[in-house]
Amino acid sequence: MLQRLSHLLGTETLSSEQIAFILDQAKPFQEFQRHSLKKLATLRGKTVAMAFFESSTRTRISFSTAAARLGADTMSLQAESSSLKKGESLIDTVRTLEAMRPDGIVIRHACSGAPEFVARRLEIPVLNAGDGTHEHPTQALLDALTIRDRKGRLEGWNITILGDILHSRVARSNIHLLSKFASRITLCGPAMWVPRELERLAANVRVVHHIDEALDGADIVMVLRVQTERIHEPALAPDEYIAGFQLTPARLRLARPDALVLHPGPIVRGLEIDSAVADGPQSGVLEQVTNGLAIRMALLYHLIGGAAADAPHPAKDRPNAFD
Amino acid sequence: MRVVEKRQLLSAEEIGRTLSRLAHEIVENSSGAKDLALIGVRRRGVPLSERLAKQIRGFANADVPVGTLDITLYRDDLSTVGPQPVVQSTQIDFPVDNQDLVVVDDVLYTGRTIRAAMNGLFDLGRPRRIRLCVLIDRGHRELPVEASFIGKSVQTSDSEIVEVRLQEIDGEERVVLVDRVP
Q1: Cβ–Cβ contact B145 with A under 8 A
Q2: ipTM of this model?
Q3: For B11-75+90-158, CATH number?
Q4: pTM for the full predicted model
Q5: Which of B138, B175, B145, B141 minimizes the C-alpha distance to B160?
């Protein structure tokens, strides 16, 4: 039986069995999104603290919706309107939230390691919604679910990740996850964003600097957002990025004919990806979003559902009511 | 948990005859099979509902749709000790609105499973009617739930468990009464 997860901090520390379990448990929640009434009472009475110290729209809405559909309440902290601006430390902010007794905390932070720092000090489950350049585990899990659904299995694919890998927690989480499933991973982008050291992240990872070479034989192409705040760093004009690394229909044809195109969003049309590819039949972008909801519901159900070992509950003296 | 078998309640042959009788009762009491659909509650309600549908197809020449329902997310006891139970898929490929549903399960006991099943069905739409068909009714209801179609009624005590074993899941075919051993 699967060892119960206490936190979800990253994919690097998950076993392939745990990952497979999470993907399997996401399936009933995928099916649930088709109900006319998308409201359960499963986590009724539970509160999920949403501590977003870095701004986010999609991930935050996805987690909030997941909690709401399970019947849980949320308490929200958003960086722009927060006490952090007044100089409050991370641990004080979190202790303040904890004092309001949530049953779990979803945290996004600009510092790598912040969720683990919090997990070591709190009694409640912590879910990492993205920390610095370190990990974004729910993104990698929803990407894996999309791959498994679209390609029929998760194991043994040639996967190419395009873009600014160095600064990408999405790329890191995906590399850690997919390398546990016999994938051959190719990283490609401008040299200063794809240093050769990245080959040491996991087994079967190679760095390539020419997009044609990177796409040859690819079964799955993951396109990363160009973080435009970085594009001026050593000078790389958008036109140069587009010329060297934009995923166009012509370039996509270099990959396998049924190659799946993924993007964590938000897409900048005409920059890292051509509209025709983003909207084309090989794109899994919209399924990624739906799958994100299913993955997050499955994680909240398993991590935040249930009670502490010593909590009283009316059903405890009647364990077989459901026999 | 250790259990000791006390007695057999139904043999393989008796299960077969009981299901046949139940299938006939369902059709007789459903104005034919119009708008009729069977919903098997996971786990053992599923093969039972499939067998009932097969029987009905055989003698009434009607194709009654069958859905499977997992009630895990609707349980009222999820906060007990231990990890959350694994969720399985619900698969009901037809609209539930205005349907005459018969929920099928192996054992009716406290009624909490059926309450959860009704919650699950109401998330999908508004059935015209829901009735319950069970192989065994063992009493001890804790909620106002009743079955319209009952294979066998059995008196049991709280420490006892009714185990329905079906070929599709357990590799054998019988219903036994077992006792928990302290």
Answers
A1: no
A2: 0.85
A3: 3.40.50.2020
A4: 0.90
A5: B138
